[in-house]
């Protein structure tokens, strides 16, 4: 099966006079979870899906333990995992204390064999756009007004579909509307439900 891609505008500074440029980006066709991996691996060996899932969960836990100890973890066929740190910028190493140095992220460096195996992947252009429509604020206000004329509340998914946004952009915009006092979140810890502020 071919992987889908689309073109995205490369960000530039607001005062830049250069013409916009575009770069190719993979369009995600879904997320594979532990159960999916377990079933696929089970199809290639005699280990049960439950046993595979148990091993994958243990792999995650043990990897985290080693990373906490400052070790780099190498998984054959995949690559290397290593913790990265962040701290304030200083001119001298004597200016900073250990309390100011914090965990930043986990860096992944893939195996050469993994990268080589992906060089032959089949790609085709996605039929549907994977990035957000560019709507003026007034147009979004109009769409919201029309929506709330017929609905009591709005979910993030409904807002995403209404405005043609990606999930991350929709979440960010809704958060901005709540902070600006245009919307109020009356949902639970597990699901946000937005209503207009009258």
Walk me through the structure.
With 198 residues, the protein is α+β, with helices and mostly antiparallel strands. 35% of the residues lie in helices and 21% in strands. The protein has 6 helices and 8 strands, in the order ββααβββαβαααββ. The strands form 3 sheets. A 3-stranded mixed β-sheet has the order 2-1-6, with no helix packed on it. Strand 3 and strand 4 form a beta hairpin. Helix 1 crosses helix 2 and helix 5 crosses helix 6. The radius of gyration is 23 Å and the shape is extended.
Radius of gyration: 23 Å
What is the helix/strand order? EEHHEEEHEHHHEE
- Bin the helical content: 25-40%
Total helices: the number is 6
Architecture blueprint of SSEs:
Elements: E1 3-9, E2 22-26, H1 34-42, H2 49-68, E3 73-75, E4 79-86, E5 102-110, H3 112-118, E6 123-125, H4 137-148, H5 156-163, H6 167-179, E7 183-185, E8 194-196
Parallel strand pairs: 1-6
Antiparallel strand pairs: 1-2, 3-4, 4-5, 7-8
Summary tags:
198 residues; three-stranded mixed sheet; 6 helices
Can I get a quick summary?
35% of the residues lie in helices and 21% in strands. It contains six helices and eight strands.
């Amino acid at each position: 099966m071919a992987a889908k891609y689309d073109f995205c505008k490369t960000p530039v500074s607001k005062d830049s006079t250069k013409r916009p440029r575009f770069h190719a980006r993979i369009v995600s066709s879904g997320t594979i979870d532990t159960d999916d991996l377990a079933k696929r691996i089970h199809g290639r060996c005699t280990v049960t899906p439950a046993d595979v899932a148990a091993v994958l969960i243990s792999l995650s836990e043990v990897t985290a333990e080693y990373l906490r100890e400052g070790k780099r973890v190498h998984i054959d066929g995949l690559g290397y995992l290593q913790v990265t740190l962040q701290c304030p910028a200083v001119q001298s190493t004597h200016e900073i204390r250990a309390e100011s140095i914090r965990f930043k992220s986990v860096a992944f460096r893939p195996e050469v064999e993994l990268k080589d195996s992906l060089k032959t992947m089949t790609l085709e252009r996605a039929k549907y756009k994977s990035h957000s429509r560019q709507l003026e604020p007034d147009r979004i206000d109009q769409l919201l007004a029309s929506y709330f004329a017929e609905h009591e509340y709005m979910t993030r998914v409904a807002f995403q579909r209404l405005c043609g946004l990606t999930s991350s952009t929709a979440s960010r915009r809704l958060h901005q509307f709540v902070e600006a006092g245009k919307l109020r979140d009356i949902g639970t810890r597990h699901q946000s439900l937005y209503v207009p502020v009258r």
